[in-house]
């Protein structure tokens, strides 16, 4: 199955109000952290700042330089590759020049207490 279509199949129904969608993994991660998703009001720019920034990077770093895209499938595959690169290899200054996936792993490694000897 096409990975893009498989990912789309895991999307949840829109949150109310508005038409925002969230991935199951994202919602689960928020829940695990004890956070509630922010759905804001329709047209609320504060709620969309991170998404807008990421979309801007995506368009600048991938979409515009790759023009013309010959097919939607070509752009979809390039998008999946860009997301993988962005999360696993792109160095982020705000994260101490490590990729987000590495930063997250380091965070949970530091935050998870080591098991005590003699406990199960």
Structure description:
This protein has five helices and no strands. The chain is mainly alpha-helical and 120 residues long. The chain has a domain of 32 residues. The chain starts with a helix and ends in a 9-residue tail after the last helix. The N terminus is likely disordered.
What is the distance, rounded to the nearest whole angstrom, between the alpha carbons of the first and last residues?
Answer: 40 Å
SSE-based structural type: mainly alpha
* Number of H/I helices: 5
- Tell me, briefly, the overall form: extended
Quote the average pLDDT: 78
State the total count of DSSP E strands: 0
The amount of beta strand, in percent, is under 5%
**Main sheet?**
none
Measured on Cα atoms, how large is the radius of gyration? 18 Å
Share of helix among residues? 40-55%
SSE run: HHHHH
Ranges where pLDDT stays below 50 over 5 or more residues in a row are 1-14
Question: What tags apply to this protein structure?
Answer:
mainly alpha, disordered N terminus, 50% helix, 5 helices, 120 residues
């Amino acid at each position: 199955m096409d990975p893009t279509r498989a990912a789309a199949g895991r999307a949840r129904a829109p949150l109310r109000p508005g038409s925002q969608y969230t991935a199951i993994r994202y919602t689960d991660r928020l829940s695990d952290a004890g956070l509630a998703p922010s759905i804001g009001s329709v047209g609320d720019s504060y709620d969309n700042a991170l998404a807008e920034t990421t979309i801007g990077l995506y368009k600048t770093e991938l979409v515009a330089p790759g023009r013309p895209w010959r097919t939607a499938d070509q752009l979809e595959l390039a998008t999946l590759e860009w997301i993988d690169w962005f999360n696993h290899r792109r160095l982020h200054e705000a994260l101490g020049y490590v990729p987000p996936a590495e930063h997250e792993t380091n965070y949970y490694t530091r935050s998870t207490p080591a098991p005590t000897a003699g406990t199960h």
